[in-house]
Amino acid sequence: MAFIFKDDKLLIGLRNYTPDKWKKISVWTAPGGRCDNGETLETTLRREVYEEVGINDLKFTDYLGSVPGAKEGDVIFVFKAETNQEPKL
Q1: Where is the Nudix hydrolase domain (predicted)?
Q2: Is there a domain that residue 89 lies in?
Q3: 88 part of a folded domain
Q4: From its phi and psi, is residue 65 left (phi > 0), alpha (psi between -120 and 50) or beta?
């Protein structure tokens, strides 16, 4: 996941999990997602951010750490990034 800043504003989105997913909830979160086979963390984040909010101009500025994911065995790697682009909603 990437905490993306533009002009000192943080981009977050409301992620809705439907009943066919693992839980039926909505949560505020930063963009991110699962790695495809053979992808690096950076490639994954760039792809996921573009798919979710249309931003392809990212500058990763810091690795903030990792936390356990919601599913057993998942790990969420957290980065800070900056952009000059507006998200497409």
Answers
A1: 1-89
A2: no
A3: no
A4: left
